[in-house]
Amino acid sequence: MKIIQVLYRVKRYIIRPSIPPLSDIDILEPIHLKNRLRFPNKNKSIYEENKFHFLNKSHSLTFPQDWNNNNLPLLWLYNLHYFDGVLNPQTPECIKEKLINEWISSNPATHGIGWDPYPMSLRICNWIKWIWLKDGNVDKLILISLFQQTLFLSKKLEFHLFGNHLLENAKALIFAGYFFGGKQGNKWKLKGIKILRTELAEQILDDGGHFELSPMYHCIVLDLILDILQLCKNNADDKELDSLNLFLKGLALKMSNWLVTMCHSDQEISYFNDAAIGIAPAPKKILERVTELVGSPIKLVSTQMKYLSHSGFVRLCNEDAVLIMDVGDIGASYIPGHGHADTLSVELSLFSQRVLVNLGTSEYGFSDRRHFERGTSAHSTMEINDRNSSEVWDGFRVGRRAVVDKLSFGKENSVIASHNGYKHLPEAPRHIRKVVLKDQSVLIEDSVEGNYKNAKVYFHFHPSVKIISDKNGLQGSIELLDGKIIHWNAEATKSLIISSKYAISFGDLRQSTSLVLTPNIDKLCNIELNWK
Predict the structure, then answer these.
(1) Which helix (H) or strand (E) holds 148?
(2) N or C, fewer C-beta in 10 Å, the chain?
(3) Taking the complete model, does pTM exceed 0.85, yes or no?
């Protein structure tokens, strides 16, 4: 961790900022109360009468006690406090306002999950967008609560974490500062802009990737940038916001090109590190918005081999296939919480259908499933001595980390890479992987340099795929959802087809199938998929 992270971790346990109660806060009418800015709807969170649906799970709640129900997962409760549902047109307007007033009365200042800086940041922006949708026709108590929340947030910024959390804090300060205006509002806005500039300069890599190396969080951060860019674009007379315009446009274009590279031909994100479909806006929607705000059309199609050298991903592709391979670090050294032990893993799409996958992310927290999903065996790569290539633990922690120490490319669609993630084991075995994509086939060859007790190469298949093997288990066929047949053959000591579970999204596990290969006496194994 950075020194500042350590200091802020100590500070947040010793010092709890005080803020005045709602009854002592008197504000003038916000300068931009009736601004007609309209931001995209959010359709992922639906509110009914005391029933809430997030992360593919529904719960009926009783307030005030269920705002902080310890029997519900923290991430689900966070989503409850985000208030994304106020931007969902399917939620009745009377429920939105009732729920906001219920939150205010049941969550006194600084107490409970709702006062954690991250959900508070998202809620501040959502409430402001909702107020603009209503052209400012809201009770003054809601405005006072917004002011109080922002005042507290400004004293509880997440410098102990950094990453996307601090970016959300900065965005909330910018939105609230612009919304309220005046001396205090301008102070918040300038503070948010300063943090935003500093953090984006560090968090967005030269190849356009977000440094946590998760396609899902990349989309979240790009959507955040587009929200602020929209605010800037509609306020050219605000010199502080206007100064962000060119800076954010350049980043949006770089990040868009990275996103295109990391998407499959079904136009959705690949599953490397913490990633799931349905949390961030769909890539297609994001790129349409980039075109609208930046003026440069971005197509969600890439037919070229590409190496994202700063984030560490390779894309091989041809007319039929898209293969994406992780050849980089686990993530930012001081914030690897969303990283997985997935070094040299691959994902493959054929004919716009996912075939080889990583098993995805279905939940956060400290469960056995969370630990498994971050581990090497949940990814289409090699596991040695039943250990993870990087030492993932405690939900969001990482100890020893694999480093790709050799990487080379062939003349066409081929790549060879190795990593040192097992160097702490006796005789320091190294995993070497070669991938060759041809017009109608793909070869994935794995080998080990050095001795080991056992090794397994996992190939996980999408739930829509049916895999069949012959009697010796080293060849067979793969049937795609549209009926196309892919032939496969392997070189290995033995193979095993096992049942597994694939996370379509958070809270949504589907039955799937995995092929496990054991290297031969020469420490080699390979699989070839052929679609002639």
Answers:
(1) helix 140-153
(2) C
(3) yes
